[in-house]
Amino acid sequence: MSADKVLDATGLSCPMPIVRTKKAMDELKTGEILEVHATDKGAKSDLAAWAKSGGHELLKELEKDSVLKFWIKKG
């Protein structure tokens, strides 16, 4: 899946992946996609809840080599 912007939040612990995701999302236009990479296991539930509450759409998530990857479409 292609993204308009990629955010590397690996190595950061809560709440920094969410803080950085919000900042990166503010730079995107409606309908654009942000790809987020994180290693904090809490990011899985945190990003899903944040996207929903912010009116964004979590398109896909996967875990590869201990890195969680998320694709979020800006609402």
Arithmetic mean of pLDDT: 96
N→C terminal distance: 18 Å
CATH structural class: Alpha Beta
Q: What is the tally of helical segments?
A: 2
Strand content: 25-35%
Q: Using the alpha-carbon principal axes, give the shape.
A: globular
Order of helices and strands: EHEHEE
CATH third-tier fold name: Translation Initiation Factor IF3
Per CATH, the superfamily is TusA-like domain
Rg value: 11 Å
Are there runs of 5+ residues with pLDDT below 50, and where? none
In helices, the fraction of residues equals 25-40%
Protein name: UPF0033 protein YrkI
InterPro entries: TusA-like, TusA-like_sf
Family: Belongs to the sulfur carrier protein TusA family.
Domain UPF0033: 7-31
Explain what this protein looks like in three dimensions.
It is built from two helices and four strands; from the N terminus they run E-H-E-H-E-E. The chain is α+β, with helices and mostly antiparallel strands. It has one domain (5-73): TusA-like domain (Translation Initiation Factor IF3, 2-Layer Sandwich), CATH 3.30.110. A four-stranded mixed sheet has the order 1-2-4-3, covered by helices on one side. Belongs to the sulfur carrier protein TusA family. Residues 7-31 form the UPF0033 domain. This is UPF0033 protein YrkI. InterPro entries: TusA-like, TusA-like_sf.
